[in-house]
Design brief:
By secondary structure, the chain is mainly α. Helix content is about 65%, strand content about 5%.
C-alpha cells in the first residue's frame, strides 16, 4: 500500500508565518542545543569507557574472587569418625550460611554493572523515534539525522530532494557492498513501508514534484525493478540549471526503497523549523534524565565494587596464612558480616553526599524521600534487604563455628 501516511492535524496545517527575528531566534536555539547535546554525549562517553570499572573488574575477579574460591576448596574441616553427627551437620550449616553472603557479594556488583550497561544502551538508543509508527520496532541511535526545514525555503528543499535522489549521493549512503547484502531492502516492511519517513514516501515525493513514474502502473503494483524518474532540470527564473547526470536520473524502486530505509534507520524526518525546535527541547530533557540516572548508576556500581574488592583483598592474608593461625570459616564469617553491614550504606553514599549539601530539614528526609519517589533507588532498597539476611547468616555461621570448632 503506497498510500501517503496520515499525519496529525498539526502536520496537515499550513506552516505558520514567522518573522525574520523569530526564525533567527529558532536557529540560534538549535545551535546552542547542538552544543549542549554534544556536551552530554561527551559526558556519557566517559562512563561508557568506564576506566574505573574496567580496571577494577579484572583485578577483582582474577586476584580476589578466584583466591577466595581456592581457599574454600583447599580448606578441609577437622572432622573425624568421633566428631559426631552434630558437628558434621553443624559444619554443613556453617558452609550454607556463608555461601549466601559469598554469592551476594558477587551478585550485587554484577547486578550494578548490568543495570549500568542497560542504562547506557537506553541512553544511546531508542526503540521508537518520534514521528514513526509505534507498531514498528527498529532501534535507532538517539542522535537522529537533521533535515533542512521545508518552511525555510520550499524551492531549496525541492532542489535538495532532487539532488539527493538523482545523484550518486544514494551510493554514498548505500555502498556497493551494502547493496549486495540487501540489508536495507530486507528492513523495508512491504507493503506498509513503516520504516520509511512519512516525508519521504513515494506519493509525497511525487506530490513535491521530485520524482515521477514513467509507467502507467498504480503505485501499489510497482515492483523492485520498475523505474522511478528523478526530475533533473530545475527552473531558475528564465534559465534552466541542469545538475544531474543522465545515469542517475532513472532509479529503480529498489534503490529508492533502500535509500529511504537508510533514512528511516537514522530517524531522519523533514521537519519544519518550529517542529525541530520542539523535538530538540524534548530531546534535551530526555538526555538530562537518562544521563542523571546513568551517572548515579555508575557511582553506585563503582563504590560497591570497590567496597567488595577491599573486603576480598583484606581477607586474603588471613586465608593464605601458612601457619593456620586463623580459622578459615571464622575469617569468612567476620569478613562477610562487615561487608553486609556497610554495603547498604556504600550503595546510598552518592545520595548521602548530595543530601549533606542541603538544608538540615532536607538533609534528614532527603534520601528517604528520594528512595520513595525515584525508581533508581530500588536497587539500594533491595541491597539493604538482602544484606540484612546476610548479616543474620554471617552471625549464625560465626556462632556455630565458635560452638562446634573453637570451643
Amino acid at each position: 500500500m503506497y498510500q501517503e501516511t496520515k499525519r496529525t492535524t498539526v502536520n496537515n496545517q499550513k506552516p505558520p508565518k514567522f518573522s525574520t527575528d523569530e526564525r533567527n531566534a529558532m536557529r540560534g536555539y538549535l545551535q546552542r542545543s547542538e552544543v549542549r547535546l554534544s556536551t552530554m554525549h561527551r559526558v556519557a562517553v566517559g562512563f561508557l569507557s568506564g576506566a574505573g570499572l574496567l580496571f577494577l573488574l579484572p583485578v577483582f575477579l582474577k586476584d580476589g574472587v578466584l583466591a577466595v574460591i581456592h581457599a574454600i576448596l583447599d580448606y578441609s574441616p577437622a572432622l573425624s569418625i568421633s566428631s559426631g553427627i552434630e558437628q558434621t551437620i553443624g559444619t554443613l550449616i556453617i558452609y550454607l550460611c556463608l555461601l549466601y553472603p559469598f554469592l551476594l557479594s558477587l551478585s550485587i556488583p554484577s547486578v550494578a554493572l548490568l543495570l549500568l550497561l542497560k542504562d547506557i544502551v537506553r541512553f544511546y538508543f531508542v526503540g521508537h523515534p518520534p514521528s514513526f509508527p509505534e507498531k514498528l520496532f527498529n532501534p535507532r541511535f538517539i542522535l537522529t539525522g537533521i533535515a533542512f526545514s521545508p518552511d525555510e525555503s520550499e524551492e531549496v528543499k525541492a532542489r535538495v530532494l532532487r539532488y539527493q535522489y538523482g545523484t550518486d549521493l544514494i551510493n554514498f549512503v548505500i555502498s556497493h557492498a551494502d547493496a549486495q547484502s540487501s540489508y536495507y531492502h530486507d528492513v523495508i516492511d512491504k507493503p506498509d513501508r513503516m520504516i520509511v519517513p512519512y516525508t519521504r514516501k513515494l506519493p509525497k515525493l511525487i506530490k513535491l514534484d521530485v520524482v515521477e513514474i514513467p509507467s502507467e502502473k498504480p503505485l501499489d503494483d510497482l515492483e523492485d525493478a520498475d523505474l522511478v524518474r528523478v526530475h533533473g532540470t530545475y527552473p531558475n527564473g528564465d534559465e534552466s540549471e541542469t545538475v544531474l547526470h543522465t545515469a542517475y536520473v532513472d532509479r529503480t524502486l529498489k534503490e529508492i526503497d533502500g535509500f529511504n530505509a537508510a533514512l528511516g534507520l537514522a530517524g531522519f524526518i523533514d521537519r519544519s523549523l518550529y517542529q525541530e525546535v520542539a523535538k530538540t527541547e524534548v530531546s534535551l530533557v530526555r538526555h538530562a534524565l537518562k544521563l542523571r540516572r546513568l551517572v548515579l548508576r555508575y557511582f553506585q556500581a563503582l563504590l560497591i565494587l570497590i567496597w567488595t574488592s577491599v573486603i576480598t583483598f583484606l581477607m586474603l592474608p588471613f586465608l593464605q596464612d601458612e601457619r593456620g593461625r586463623f580459622p578459615i570459616l571464622l575469617v569468612f564469617a567476620i569478613a562477610y558480616f562487615i561487608w553486609a553491614a556497610l554495603a547498604p550504606f556504600i550503595v546510598q553514599l552518592p545520595l548521602t553526599w548530595l543530601a549533606s549539601s542541603s538544608k538540615p530539614e532536607v538533609r534528614r528526609k532527603g534520601v528517604r524521600l528520594f528512595q520513595k519517589s525515584d525508581a533508581i533507588q530500588r536497587f539500594g532498597t533491595l541491597t539493604r534487604r538482602f544484606c540484612f539476611f546476610a548479616l543474620f547468616t554471617s552471625i549464625s555461621a560465626l556462632v556455630l563455628e565458635i560452638v562446634f570448632h573453637l570451643a
